[in-house]
Specification:
Blueprint lengths: L1 H9 L12 H10 L7 H8 L3 H13 L3 E3 L4 E3 L1 H11 L2 E9 L5 E8 L9 H10 L4 E8 L2 E4 L4 E2 H4 L1 H11 L6 E6 L3 H16 L4
Helix pairs in contact: 2-9, 3-4, 6-9
Length: 206
């Protein structure tokens, strides 16, 4: 997948110390800048990276021509907006959703498009959510207007009808879309797991 490979190249190891940020932080920063200028301290808080690491990430993204800075903060360049647009063709979210049945908490979830169900490796996607810092992920697929668990083909609505309604309202998924609910010990780790698992799922896009 071209956009994913491009973003991965930004965090490939260069001469010198290994950076403290990874692909998830790159994507999260670009998403945060979608709606306008954000200050460095605010980015540090939202991404949960130290200011030194955020400065390094900003420098790397500036070198790639994706962002620029002003007195007010960081913002996307035209190239950056184009890359985010490319990513958004396949990725929606992460969106905060309050669930009451699958889990009783506010969690973050992402939607991934373009992955054939026969190629989706649910265990690998779930493992990536853990590697991202979360506790795991709940994977759902939209088929015939319903959300199902791909491993068992059981309907989410059979057990958790209210949560299905909330997820459907939040994402309005199309046929074959994959929804990943990130599980974590905090909203931040839920968001990291939702993004990390989604990026793993994007590797299976045809």
């Amino acid at each position: 997948m071209q956009i994913l490979n491009y973003l991965k190249s930004i965090v490939e190891r260069l001469p010198g110390p290994l950076p403290n940020f990874n692909l998830i932080h790159v994507v999260l920063m670009l998403i945060l800048l979608e709606n306008g200028v954000v200050g460095r301290k605010r980015l540090s808080s939202l991404i949960n990276l130290g200011e030194g690491s955020v400065r390094s990430l900003i420098r790397r993204l500036r070198e790639a021509g994706l962002i620029d800075t002003s007195k007010e903060g960081c913002y996307l360049t035209p190239k950056g907006r184009e890359k985010v647009k490319d990513l958004r063709r396949f990725l929606k979210g992460p969106i905060e959703i309050e669930l009451s049945e699958l889990v009783q908490d506010k969690v973050y979830a992402s939607l991934v498009r373009g992955v054939p169900l026969k190629k989706l490796r649910v265990l690998e996607v779930r493992d990536e959510a853990v590697r991202a810092g979360g506790k795991g992920a709940i994977i759902l697929v939209c088929l015939q207007g319903k959300l199902i668990f791909p491993e068992t083909s059981e309907l989410l609505a059979r057990y958790h009808p209210r949560d299905e309604l909330r997820i459907m309202e939040a994402f309005k998924p199309s046929e074959g879309d994959i929804i990943i609910v990130g599980l974590g010990s905090s909203p931040h780790t839920s968001k990291l797991s939702a993004i990390g698992a989604a990026l793993k799922a994007l590797e299976f896009v045809e």
